[in-house]
Structures are given as structure tokens and as C-alpha cells.
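Researcher: Here's the sequence for the chain we discussed earlier.
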Amino acid sequence: MARGDHLYVRRGRRYSHHGIDCGDGTVIHYAGPRGTERYVARTSVDEFSIGSQVFVRSYDSRLSAEETVRHAESRLGSVGYHLVRNNCEHFAAWCCTGRAVSGQVRSWMMASQGTVASFLAAQSLGVHMALVGTVGAGLYAFGRPLRRRMTAATVPAGRRRGGRRADE
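Model: Thanks. This is the structure I predict for it:
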């Protein structure tokens, strides 16, 4: 980790938390307990990570470390956190590149579009058709790994990899 790095930690399976490394053992990120107005603050790396492993996001093209930290420091104390439009990932990406983007939000939006499409299909085709389609897709997905295991079990052990047995 170095000054100006975009740091992130995973918070379970649901999301990750992002901030900017100041190079002195501190990180600038959105802070504050849930249910309160979050604000941009400078905290220790330990407070930022809360015991999770810290990762560094790399960029193909980015601002200098000094400019990145300058961007982060310019927002200290500011509020306006919004889960979809202005979250910690938006903040860290903006500091590093000048563009506020969030891959997490993009992924959530794609998943929600699939949910909306399923809901609309259920309304237009009838719930019974949507249910049949969902069960069919589930059975297919469940059966696929099972078919692979069954296929692997029927191939002689010496021929599974590389096409030749070890004793040939």
C-alpha cells in the first residue's frame, strides 16, 4: 500500500468498502455508523479495515498520488453519501480518476433488471408460466454439475487428463 492508493475491504459477501490511502497509516473514506448521515473522514487503516484484509485497486490510467490525496482531502467533512449515486466507491474512484463510478452499483443494477424482467414476465405470462420457467432453470443448473460428475465417473481414471494413461 502506498500514498494515493485506492484501498478496499470486503464486508462479508454483500459489498466492499473503499477509501484512499494517505501514506501515513490513515485512510480517507466515508465514515459514520449506519442510520446516521455519513461523512468523509480520515481514520486509521485499522479503523477503516475493521480487521478485514485490505486490497488495492489498480487502474490503467489514473491521476498522480499527490493529486489523488488532494482530491480526497478536499472532501474531508463533506456529507451527501447516497448508496446508489454517491457511495464510498464513487468517492475513491473520483479521487483516483476524476470520474465517480461504482462497479458494485452497476452489478446491483444489472441484477435488479433481471428481477424486474422476471416480474414483468410473471405478470404478462401468468405466475404459473414464470414458476415453471424458474423451476426448469433451477433443475437445469442443478443437473449440470451432476452430469459432469457422471461423465467423469464413466471415463477410465488413466484417461481423464491428457488422453493417455500413465502406464502407456
